[in-house]
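Subject: design request, 358 residues
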């Protein structure tokens, strides 16, 4: 289990986490700042200069998950992780990757009132050098607006502790009591286990009466996606698409969807690749869309979009797949793709919108 202590800079995460280690049995402190420090040794200066925050580096987010999992495998028990996460997509990615490893996350937010928070920041003297301390205080104040902007989703996701009138020891005791009594519940983000070999996945394109198609926004990974998922052992792929639509959207399709394309996705560590199938699920009526229901732990949002709009939502590999699926639908055929490129005697030509090549 992981107890993730969130909050803006100056909220007291690190000091509270250190106290928690003595209050929660069999717990170990893991500060992801150590991973951030490693970035300066691992990455070229040019790459580091391209980001303002280590969290914007995919390698940082991946290494935080890998290190946390390795630590738990080594020492067991509970991992106490003090780290600010204000971007919901990064929270989704990290917590989703931990869920995929069957690691439970209890998300706790330390949330003093803004006036109290600013007073505490103004009183920070960590370095003993006036100029250095002033820069730290300015930096902390600068991160309060993004924190306030993130509060809407934070308070709905985490167990909130108002530390305005609490000492560090009292805040730690409040968190420990909530975790041990299960009042700080496990985070609802779920993810299927990481594959150990190539996978077969089925996606379904659902259209509205304006011929736009439906995309969903998963909580557990970046980028939008088609409704669908991994085909279970012994399950027919088209039926898997029907099952996933029912599970993800609450819709029962009237007929087995028609295959549009088969795409071989090349392995890209840590992924194993495999076959990706896209089906035509037909047109949804207005009363169908009114019945859409998303599982909050898995999908954040849905929307109907055009092909052009999808270029800004889908990762390139999925956008290429979409482009050719739409062409197959127009022609009433089935296309065979390898890594997003049509192959075979009847392979069409053309460049997806907004891409340098198919």
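Subject: RE: design request

Done. Sequence follows.
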């Amino acid at each position: 289990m992981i107890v993730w202590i969130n909050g803006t800079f100056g909220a007291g995460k690190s000091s509270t986490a250190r106290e928690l280690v003595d209050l929660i049995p069999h717990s170990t402190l893991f500060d992801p700042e150590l991973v951030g420090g490693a970035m300066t040794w691992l990455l070229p200066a040019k790459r580091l200069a391209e980001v303002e925050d280590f969290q914007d580096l995919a390698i940082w987010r991946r290494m935080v998950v890998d290190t946390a999992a390795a630590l738990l495998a080594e020492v067991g028990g509970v991992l106490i992780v003090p780290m600010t996460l204000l971007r919901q997509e990064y929270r989704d990615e990290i917590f989703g990757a931990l869920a995929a490893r069957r690691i439970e996350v209890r998300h706790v937010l330390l949330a003093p009132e803004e006036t109290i928070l600013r007073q505490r920041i103004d009183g920070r003297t960590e370095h003993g050098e006036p100029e250095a301390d002033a820069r730290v205080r300015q930096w902390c104040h600068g991160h309060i607006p993004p924190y306030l902007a993130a509060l809407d989703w934070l308070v709905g996701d985490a167990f909130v502790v108002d530390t305005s009138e609490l000492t560090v020891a009292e805040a730690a005791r409040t968190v420990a009591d909530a975790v041990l009594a299960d009042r700080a519940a496990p985070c609802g983000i779920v993810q299927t286990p990481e594959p150990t070999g190539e996978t077969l996945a089925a996606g379904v394109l659902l259209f509205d009466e304006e011929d736009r198609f439906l995309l969903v926004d998963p909580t557990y990974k970046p980028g939008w996606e088609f409704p669908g998922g991994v085909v279970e052992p012994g399950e027919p792929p088209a039926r898997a698409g029907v099952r996933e639509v029912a599970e993800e959207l609450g819709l029962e399709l009237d007929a087995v969807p028609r295959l549009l394309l088969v795409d071989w996705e090349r392995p890209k560590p840590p992924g194993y690749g495999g076959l990706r199938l896209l089906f035509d699920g037909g047109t949804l009526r207005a009363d169908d869309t009114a019945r859409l229901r998303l599982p909050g732990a898995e999908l954040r949002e849905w929307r109907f979009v055009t092909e052009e709009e999808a270029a800004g939502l889908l990762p390139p590999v999925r956008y290429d797949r979409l482009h050719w699926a739409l062409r197959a639908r127009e022609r009433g055929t089935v296309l065979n793709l390898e890594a997003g490129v049509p192959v075979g005697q009847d392979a069409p030509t053309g460049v997806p919108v907004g891409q340098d090549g198919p």
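The radius of gyration is 23 Å.
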